[in-house]
Each structure stands twice: as C-alpha cells, then as structure tokens.
Amino acid sequence: GAGVSQSPSNKVTEKGKDVELRCDPISGHTALYWYRQSLGQGLEFLIYFQGNSAPDKSGLPSDRFSAERTGGSVSTLTIQRTQQEDSAVYLCASSAQGAFLSYNEQFFGPGTRLTVL
Amino acid sequence: TQLLEQSPQFLSIQEGENLTVYCNSSSVFSSLQWYRQEPGEGPVLLVTVVTGGEVKKLKRLTFQFGDARKDSSLHITAAQPGDTGLYLCAGARTGTASKLTFGTGTRLQVTL
Q: Which residues are B109's β-sheet partners?
C-alpha cells in the first residue's frame, strides 16, 4: 500500500490476556516508530527501529511490552498480561531516515485502538 | 515529565477568526515539527523548522521557531472548518534524533 497500515483497527481484550498489534510501514522506509496516545492527548514514544534493530527502547513502560521487526519491514508490538491502563491508541510511524539527520518526516498509520476490560 | 507544553489545550472559534497556538519548552531542540491529527487517523506532518528564528508559511498557516530553539508558534489566519483537528508540536533533541518528543496537543474546533 501507499501508506502505513496497522491492524487490527480496534481490539477489545480482557485483562490478563496477551495482544499483538501489527504495523506495515511504507515500503523502503528504514525507520519505524511505535507511539501510544491516550484519549486525544499527545503521543508517548515507545520504541524505535532502524532496520531490524531497536537502538531506542526507552519508552516501553514495562517488561510486559515488547516489539520486533522482521525483514526490515513489518513490526509487531506485543503486550503481555494486559492491564486496564494499557487502553489507548497505539500508533506506528515510518520514516525514510533514521538517526542520521537531526530531523525526519514521520508518516503515521491510523492506529490501533486497544480497550482492556 | 512533559518536555513540550502546548497552549491553549482547547480552542473553539468561528470561521474567519485568527488564532495562535504555542509550544514551549525549557529544553533546546535541534528541530521542531507541527502535525495535525483528525479523529480516527494518525498525525500528518505540516512543517519542520530547524533554524532559530525561522518563519515558514503554508497558505494560511504561519509557523515560527523561537530564536533559542526552545519554543514555537502556529498562527492560523481566517480559520476554516477544515482546520479543525488536534495540533501537535514535536521536537527532536540533539543526540536523540531518532525520537520525537510530542507536545500535549491543542484541540481546535472551527465552526461556521
């Protein structure tokens, strides 16, 4: 596709269950980012990938959160033993440039709305 | 700790009015971006400013980066209903170019 896609668009789960969120970046973009957005607020950085490596995981809120990227393309964000405070919109973005310049244009997907009951 | 504070948080105005949104920090940023986000969608980049004192214009939108690169403003002239959305500033700090720090957001509603 032409843009960043994410699936599912909505996910409702029960507390304690594991969830996987998927991001398909723009083809050829080497950098990929995950953010979390709560109720129309600003974005909270979670993790950054350059290729398949994650040089910056500083935003992951706990060890229940993990992410991987394979083939320099698709990324999966996994949340284990979900808690109610994990409810939010999870946004993925990709960029043609990573950490080599002081700025980069990030293209965002529509997000996955996660609701933990 | 929120590094970028935006004001106002909410703004409801009528079509044709002018408005300014502020993005402030005590930290220096190497560059600053402005995004607009509509419901159910991801943020879309409007502009990037990289030089202290820089002014960029995008049709009715004027963006300014502070001389000290700690703050920025977005001014909209003659607002239209299509300008409605959540406006987010985002800064990149020297040495952490991979990570953008997003502001708290300004929700703008423009009515007829």
A: B12
Tally C-beta pairs within 8 A across A and B.
Answer: 78
| Chain A residue at shortest CA distance from B94 | A102
Contact residues, chain A, for B50 at CB < 8 Å: 102-103
3-state secondary structure labels for all residues of B30-43: CEEEEEEECCCCCC
The HSE-up count of residue A71 (CA atoms within 13 Å, CB side) is: 8
Question: Mind listing the pLDDT tens digit for each residue in A26-77?
Answer: 998 988 999 999 876 778 999 999 899 998 888 999 999 999 999 889 999 9
Cβ pair A83, B30 in contact under 8 A: no
Task: State pLDDT tens for residues B49-69.
Answer: 989 999 999 999 999 999 999
Are A10 and A112 in contact, with CB atoms under 8 Å apart?
yes
Separation between Cα atoms, residue B39 and residue B98, nearest integer Å: 26
Helix (H, G, I), strand (E, B) or coil at A71: coil
CB atoms A48 and B45 under 8 Å = no
Instruction: Please give the DSSP secondary-structure letter assigned to residue B78.
Output: S
Question: Token pair for residue A96?
Answer: 């043609």
Q: Which amino acid is at A55?
A: P
Task: Pick the residue from chain B with its C-alpha nearest to A107.
Answer: B44
